[in-house]
Design goal:
By secondary structure, the protein is α+β, with helices and mostly antiparallel strands. About 45% of the residues lie in helices and about 15% in strands. It is elongated and about 75 Å long.
Length: about 290
């Protein structure tokens, strides 16, 4: 076995172990964006002479290829096909902590006690994460909204003799629209931790989990999941209460960003007609 074959073998082993035992319920993808960039580079190099290069085709229409170069440069972490831009820690009970991380060294990680006698420990917390279609969010959705908003502000809202209540209402609606879009596209949609075993029902009740839910094994993410969670092939993660993947917001819509998505859609249907009416009024008066 030569050096290249040894490297490929070790990389595949590491990738497989991460898929089976990593902390998040994610699919079989490269463990980092740096590895993804190297794989894409190899695929582009061999695309003209190797029929197997079809395995390297980007299912996201180029967005994943773009992510591999940008995210590897800025050092973003990876969960499935999603890029983690900022993460922190939160203190939770063992019933809520990552099941696979909490089994070994539980006493060492404990930092106190919680109601019900559950030890408390630190768990990774996702603060800012973007989905596989984040280029669409950054380069299409936000520019469209901000362009129309800016034109309306200059030509029809912040003008002499304009009603102050209208200015305040319009500013609140437009600001809420941009904020809701951020909370949809840049927040955790509800990525499930990995469960190699079905959790104890009593622990899930005390931890606020899915007590009484029917758990099923998911091959794509190598995890047990409650029936209310589904595997999203675009984001390559299991999402709680998964609804759909929205390219306009760049990510999956699930339990943790569904409310923000509903607010965003509602404000779109309020702000867009309002902006058109304001601009039409300026045109008619001219």
């Amino acid at each position: 076995m030569n050096i290249d074959q040894l490297y490929d073998s070790e990389r595949t082993t590491h990738k497989t172990n991460h898929w089976r035992y990593g902390p998040w319920a994610a699919g079989f993808v490269e463990t980092s964006w740096h590895d993804e960039r190297n794989r894409n580079a190899a695929g582009l190099k061999n695309c003209c002479c190797d029929e197997s290069s079809t395995d390297n085709m980007d299912p996201t229409g180029g967005c994943q290829l773009f992510s591999s170069f940008i995210c590897s440069k800025i050092g973003a972490k990876r969960i499935g096909n999603m890029a983690v831009l900022k993460e922190g820690e939160e203190i939770v009970s063992n019933a809520d902590a990552f099941p696979e991380e909490g089994k070994e060294g539980e006493d060492d990680d404990s930092i106190g006690s919680n109601n019900g006698g559950h030890p408390r420990q630190a768990r990774r917390k996702i603060d800012i994460i973007v989905g596989p279609y984040w280029p669409c969010l950054i380069f299409i959705t936000y520019p469209l909204i901000l362009t129309l908003t800016t034109i309306t502000a200059i030509k029809a809202v912040f003008v002499p003799n304009q009603y102050i209540p209208l200015m305040l209402v319009w500013s609140g609606l437009s600001g809420g629209l941009c904020s809701a879009l951020f909370r949809v596209g840049c927040k955790d949609p509800g990525i499930l931790p990995r469960y190699r075993n079905i959790p104890n029902a009593k622990d899930m009740e005390s931890g606020g989990g899915w007590a009484g839910d029917n758990w099923r094994w998911n091959d794509q993410a190598q995890t047990y999941k409650p029936k209310s969670a589904l595997y999203d092939s675009d984001c390559a993660v299991v999402v709680e209460d998964f609804d759909h993947t929205c390219p306009w917001t760049g990510t999956a819509i699930g339990k943790k960003n569904m409310l923000a998505f509903q607010i965003f859609v509602t404000l779109i249907f309020i702000c867009l007609p309002l902006d058109i009416l304001l601009l039409s009024g300026i045109a008619d008066s001219a």
